[in-house]
Specification:
- By secondary structure, the protein is mainly α.
């Protein structure tokens, strides 16, 4: 195996020292960084829609949403600089099957911040501005989601070299992005003219729901089969197991959100049927989500005991769990069961703990210069050690 050392271009300072060009720090700023925005935005929106509210909770959610919006703006500018100054690396990311799926995070970050504007951001910027922000971000996010859902699988077929033995939950990212549109699109329905526009939005969101659901059902057997036959994922990738919760929790959220808006958008008997579908679909899917959550948590504990260090994959513990919070809250709303309300509260506590851990370690990595690192690379090399197990296939 040959190793190539690439020396960054440097400039000479007045004191005679050399320092890397400012834009060199952006070289490894991959699309996976949008997961920080997604994870932060879901903390705000899930907290604002919990069945149980504590004093000051909504104000805290407003501040967290503002943080996610600021982070999105900074990342959009930084990623633009990445494409301008490091086009070779950007093209390499697209041609890397381990990195290209993370482009789905861009659309989900746009959608999450846009949806948060209507859920909680309106308290800060006003309803009219919130509607305008969400309309722009929803349009851009949905267009990007559809493009990614086609482009990344296309690249995987014609340009990437992939094997079933190397399947990871990361492959789900471009496929789940349209489901986020399906879950957040209903927020705009009350702000559309009655009649055809509302019905078109409602049915369009159901089409996005079906697109993402069926594509996910095709991909999930590859991921689960790889685990059964190939053994545990490499330690830094273990948190990505939680990505499977994304399409499960988000689809449950989507059917409940759409059921809320069905009476305003479509006539009988469809409105009532869609309300029933939200429960008939959501309850079994939430059951499977809890099963996968338990399995993933057990694998995460195993990896932590094996020396798993921090990497940006820790952000996979945030947004997917947040979608299960909003899904459970939607089921509590439609069934009236206190059990679902408590489930949402417990999952939100887990989400908050995961977000605090990921955010703290990310800020520490930025302050020490360990980040940004190459997508998927541990921030602290040498800390992780391998476990004796079957071949991980990677």
């Amino acid at each position: 195996m040959a190793t190539t050392l690439v020396r960054p271009r440097t400039r000479t300072t007045p004191a005679g020292r050399t320092a890397p060009r400012a834009h060199e720090a952006l070289r490894h700023l991959g699309p996976n960084w949008y997961a920080c925005v997604m994870g932060t935005a879901i903390v705000a929106t899930a907290g604002a829609t919990l069945p149980y509210q504590l004093p000051g909770q909504r104000v805290a959610c407003q501040l967290v949403w503002a943080l996610s919006a600021a982070a999105l703006a900074v990342l959009l500018v930084a990623r633009a600089g990445h494409w301008i100054h490091h086009r070779d690396q950007a093209r390499a990311h697209l041609l890397d099957p381990a990195v290209a799926p993370f482009y789905g995070c861009l659309s989900m970050a746009l959608l999450a911040v846009g949806g948060g504007a209507l859920i909680v951001g309106k308290d800060l910027i006003g309803l009219s501005a919130a509607v305008a922000v969400d309309a722009v971000l929803f349009t851009a996010g949905t267009a990007t989601a559809l493009l990614t859902a086609v482009a990344v699988p296309y690249l995987m077929v014609v340009r990437h070299t992939v094997e079933a033995a190397r399947a990871t939950p990361v492959w789900l990212l471009p496929l789940v992005a349209p489901m986020v549109s399906a879950a957040l699109g209903p927020l705009l329905i009350p702000h559309l003219p009655a009649g055809q526009p509302r019905e078109a939005m409602l049915l369009g969101c159901y089409a996005l729901f079906g697109l993402s659901l069926l594509a996910t059902l095709l991909m999930l057997p590859l991921v689960f089969g790889r685990l059964l036959t190939g053994g545990p994922l490499p330690l830094p990738l273990t948190p990505t197991l939680f990505l499977v919760l994304g399409p499960l929790g988000q689809s449950t959220t989507a059917v409940n959100q759409l059921a809320d808006m069905a009476p305003r958008s479509i006539g009988a008997p469809y409105a009532g049927a869609l309300g029933a579908f939200a429960v008939v679909y959501g309850v079994p899917v939430m059951g499977f989500a809890l099963l996968w959550l338990a399995l993933s948590a057990a694998m995460l504990v195993r990896a932590a005991r094996g020396g798993m260090g921090f990497s940006m994959t820790w952000w996979a513990l945030t947004f997917p769990v947040g979608t299960c919070v909003t899904g459970a809250a939607g089921l509590a709303r439609h069934t009236g069961l206190t059990a679902f309300a408590w489930l949402a509260a417990v999952l939100y506590a887990a989400l908050l703990a995961a977000w605090l851990a990921a955010a703290a370690r990310t800020l520490h990595g930025l302050s020490t210069g360990r980040l940004p690192a190459a997508p998927g690379a541990p921030a602290a090399p040498g800390r992780s050690r391998s476990l004796r197990s079957r071949p991980a296939g990677s």
